[in-house]
Amino acid sequence: MKSFLSIYKGIGIYIFFILSGYFFNTKKYKNIGKVLKDKLVKIGIPWLVIGSISFFWTIRYNEFSFDVLGFINYLLGNGSYLYYLTILMLCYILIYFLPPKDKIYYILIGINIVSVLLTSFNILPKEVYKNKMIFTYLNPYLNILNWIGIFAIGVLIKRHNLLEKMQERLEKNWILILLAIAIIGIILILCKQTTSYWNLLTILIGIIGFVAVITISLKLTKINLLVDIGKRSFHMYLIHLLFLEKLNQIYTANNIFAIIRPVITVLIIYMLVLLGQKIAKLLKIERIYNTVLGVR
91 with 17: CB under 8 angstroms? Predict the structure, then answer.
């Protein structure tokens, strides 16, 4: 079971980028200044605050140097999980300035595939150096060419209303879709295939995983708890690192916990965030609390 789950462990980042492209509406903003102002408030403040707390939490393990270089590297994702936010901001800026033409997005997807392929062959570097200043070398996680095409897929899905057009078909065939996902995973295990961010197989699995997650989501839209958790995915992503150490000490490494561990982790974080909101409301600092955590 753990081998099966490991095949799909990396799809989350692809789902995040596709959805980010899907929900990014350039027509909403009059100029790039409006884009930056909106994103710096909604993303930048919680990024800085929670990212700083995570940095001081992490340096206990000597993973990053306790200085300005280490702090900047951590916040911008040179060796930390926050690389997603740096690339996300770059995607917003780039897509805003590009002409809204389908062929542009197809070109971006093609560039993305080539970049990942070059990275997989080590023509573009795979190594991450936490002791080097960010952007002084080519970090694969911070190479926008490795992600921009995934973001562009989300833009195309939105532009052509593909989710709306496919909704009925996905809901009707959800069992077949999930069965296909399972079969693909089993075949890859039998063929002893492994996945990493830097191979084309993972991009394919990421896209397939996106379809599977959307299919499951359509079946669960009547469960208010899951809908609310989905709306809180941004701040839960930001703070999850603060809880992983303790939670990993509690869980045992077996197949059962491999399945339920993510569910338990999400529920614990969700309940703690709700508790924090109630306390903040009593203290009349709910607006500050929501801004700092990125609660929307």
Answer: yes
pLDDT < 50: residue spans in the chain: none
- Closest residue by Cα to residue 266 from 286, 293, 247, 290: 247
The per-residue pLDDT for range 7-32, each reduced to its tens digit, is 666 788 888 999 999 999 888 888 89
Q: With 0-12 CB in 10 A as exposed, 13-18 as middle and 19+ as buried, what is 241?
A: middle
State pLDDT tens for residues 200-212.
788 888 888 888 8
Determine the residue type at 239: I
Distance in angstroms (rounded) separating the CA atoms of residues 85 and 82: 6
Q: At what angle do helices 200-219 and 162-172 cross, to 10 degrees?
A: 70
CA distances in angstroms from 127 to 79, 81, 130, 139, 180, listed in the order given: 10, 15, 10, 7, 34
CB 170 within 8 A of CB 211: yes
Q: How far is CA 52 from the centre of its chain?
A: 19
